Amino acid sequence: MPKHYEIKIHLVKGVSVKSDASPVLHIGDTVRYICKEGVARVVFQSGSPYAVSKVHDTHNHTVKKTGHFRYECYVTPTGKTKEISYDRNNPKSGGEHEVVP
């Protein structure tokens, strides 16, 4: 039976982002990315487990593909217009999904 997960993305000291660890996902599970400090955005640069490669925090996404997927996190803090970007030098500013059948 498919499960629903909420992956939390955090704004760290107003200057960087961090994603909580993801559980192992299965085909049919749904995922929503949330950030209590602002609006989250997730980008899969090299393949996505979903039908889309860019994900916004207002939608649930159904897992459609098996494999290992890395993603980058971005947050626009509440009341701001400038997005805090993924930092390639900080692997915790992104995340990974392992998807099995």
Mind explaining what this structure looks like?
The chain has 101 residues and is mostly beta strands. It has a single domain (4-100), classed as Immunoglobulin-like (Sandwich), CATH 2.60.40.420. It contains no helices and nine strands. The protein has strands at residues 4-12, 16-19, 25-26, 30-34, 38-43, 54-56, 61-62, 67-77, 94-100. A five-stranded mixed beta sheet has the order 3-9-8-5-6, with no helix packed on it. Strands 2-1-4-7 form a four-stranded mixed beta sheet, with no helix packed on it. The radius of gyration is 13 Å and the shape is globular. The model has no long low-confidence stretch (mean pLDDT 90).
The count of strands amounts to 9
Helix share, percent: under 10%
Q: Radius of gyration over alpha carbons?
A: 13 Å
**What is the global morphology?**
globular
Structural class: mainly beta
| Strand-residue proportion | over 45%
| CATH fold description | Immunoglobulin-like
Order of helices and strands: EEEEEEEEE
* Biggest sheet layout: 5 strands, mixed
The CATH superfamily name is: Cupredoxins -  blue copper proteins
Question: How many domains make up the 3D coordinates?
Answer: 1
Short description:
The chain is mainly β. It has no helices and nine strands. It has a single domain, classed as Cupredoxins -  blue copper proteins (Immunoglobulin-like, Sandwich).
List keywords for this structure.
101 residues; mainly beta; Immunoglobulin-like; five-stranded mixed β-sheet; four-stranded mixed β-sheet; 9 strands; 0% helix; 49% strand; globular
